Amino acid sequence: MLYKRSIFLLLFCLFSLLGLAQKDRKEIPLKNILGIISKQHQVRFSYIEDEIVVYALTPPEKNWSLEEKINYLKSITKLQFKRISEKYFTIYDDKKVDKPLCGFLLDAETGKGIENAIITIDKANFSAFTDANGHFNIPKISSDLIRIQHQGYQTFSINPEDLNVPDCPKFKLQPILQSLDEVVTQRYLTTGISKKNDGTIVIKPKKFGLLPGLIEPDVLQTMQQVPGIISIDETISNINVRGGTHDQNLFLWNGIRMFQTGHFFGLISAFNPSLAQNITISKNGSSAFFGESVSSLVDISSQTNNTENTNASLSSNMISAEFYSKIKISDNSNFTFSARRSLTDVLESPTYNNYSNRIFQNTVITDLSTNAIVGYKSNVDFYFYDITAQFEQKIGNKHQFNIDVIAIENTLQFDQSTATLNKNSALEQESFGGSLHWKTTWNTNHTTEFKGYFSAYDLNSSNQTLESNQTLSQKNKVLDYGFQIRNSNRLSDLLTLNSGYQLNEIGVTNFDEINLPFFSRTITNVLISHVGIVEGMYETANKKTFIRAGLRANYFDKFGLFLAEPRMQFNQALSNHWRLEVLGEQKSQTLSQIIDLQQDFLGVEKRRWTLANNENIPIQKSNQLSIGLSYKKNNWLITLENFYKKITGITSSSQGFMNQFELERAVGDYQVLGSEFLIQKSFNRFYTWLSYAYNDNKYDFKTLSSTTFPNNFEVTHAVSWAGIYEWKKIKLALGAKWHTGRPITTPINFTVTEANPNIIYNTPNNEKLKDYFQVNFSASKEWRLGDKTSLLTSASILNLLNTQNSINRFYRVNSSDNTIESVDTFSLELTPNLNVKLMF
Known about the structure:
The protein is mainly beta and 840 residues long.
């Protein structure tokens, strides 16, 4: 037995060596080989040119017999050789392959077709392009290799013989990943989301899969699936990253800082989901080129590096309708336009009614002395829209020019009444911004970018209260503009040095006017900052080590203050499956939101932007450090990250206190210790994940009566689960969220005296609301209507089990009977939504 195995092994090695030796010999077209055999053996071959032209192979040995040579050709090509006479042979192919060569090119990450890949046969001077499904056809004209090229994917070649099969084979292309963008995992939570070695999470909406409760790739809803990111009141205008407030996050759209991020006062993202190309989210360790945030960074870019063919889409859901179009003006320029408008003022769908009840809900007011419900009636007239326009132009091979414009508006007319009173109020939010971007690639190692930008935010409100004839008019205006220069030099294959300068000016105006008693004030502040930036990036050739270290040096001329902010990202492969990540940063922020009164801006939008004065409103500063491990093997992904975060210079008026500190003005800090865990598994078409986040988040206000107590935005435990199934063009997603309730402060007694009509509270944030729980579902199906036309239908159900969650509670005095009322705000009830999108 051992003898036979040894002989078999010897023969296997021998034939392998012979095979390798044979491959080393030059391959020539089959037609030429047949000509050589005809001369050597005085025979003739009859064939159809198209049936043999795709074959090229190593010629058979010259000393072989005619029969041996024909058998060799048959085994390699699978062609049939039929002997007609002693000197004549006919050659024919399988009827199943009697068709043009064809195939499909698919994204290796998402499985979706790759459009506009170039198919070339150089010697035949032939080229073709793939369609929207990634399909291509090639005539049988040559045995030369077929080259596949696409700007976003690695180039490779196909042997034409591999296409000469009954079906059209599928080829998966690997996306081109820059050396500094090496990924930890290609699929993070869902298709189209990846995590990079620098700690950032990247979302590509065009490749987006599906998440529970979503019908579109809404960036601000999507980011809440990431461990450590949550909205304590379900809105995207109040996103809390590792215990921070919403205004501590920096939101950029094509380099424009956005001060308004939501429609419908936080239930819908203000950014058109059809538009974004690339979204980068950083919870810690952001690049030194980004400032003005002590929490996270959300960088939305809809700019492309290549000129795309003209395409468009129309879509509508039960809240709004939108249009998107990218027009190819020339081979080097594109113009993109998008517009979205609500249907809320013409159509009251069940979705709109539930959204309206959530935002403008008659908050449930309970008289705690009688346990009776106090009712107010309201009538809402509301609409919103957003518009974007972009122009992209390539100038030669070195220059690229972009202009981007965005406009956003929310308008509300609000009537509130009781049996005897009726008052009218109004609220309008407007945002407008633009940017100009010029990039020059001097050579493969040197690029320079210039970016100029401006952003304007305007909020106006007129609020008539039910209890009196008092009218409060308020305005909040922000104007932000500046420019940034960035220079990048690749010093070696491993090391890149970036440097830059940024000039920024921010002006903020706050206006208040009351009719009874008459009072009016206007406060305007302006701040100019100069920033120097240097950043180095190092990555080994094997991608095992990645280091980025930077310094952002800020100078605020109004204060004569210099702040240096170091940044650091380190990622090291410990083995083939384990990676270590260390992130750290110091950041500062001069612009923040405060709340003067809970009824500001109708109580719907209570926050107003204000500038630091380095006195009672100091510059906020952050220190953050995180250490994480990730494990990836056999479609398993496990990540664990522990972090420490401290923010100094916060004001009590920025934290939304609704207890004994509501009217206090104090400066303090908060610090968070936390852990974030994710486990994810893919099973071909099905994948699932479970995440857990822990936060210990505490305030420290030295001048308040209680100095240390739980943060208003503390969510001690949060768990999220999802299961997603994808089959061909069908996607299903089911998920659940659970987290502990937010902290609240309860009264000591439920009655007050006429002499002292104030609530006496317990210690701050002494209790928590009941735990929050929600189940969500989504489904989508894409229908191919033509070569370049498809229809995408999506449906979702938020709060599938219709769970009633209390997301906020505060207390107030009813002056008519000196009792204390408990005011609860509840989460969104069971809410279906549908979306139909036509792409062409």
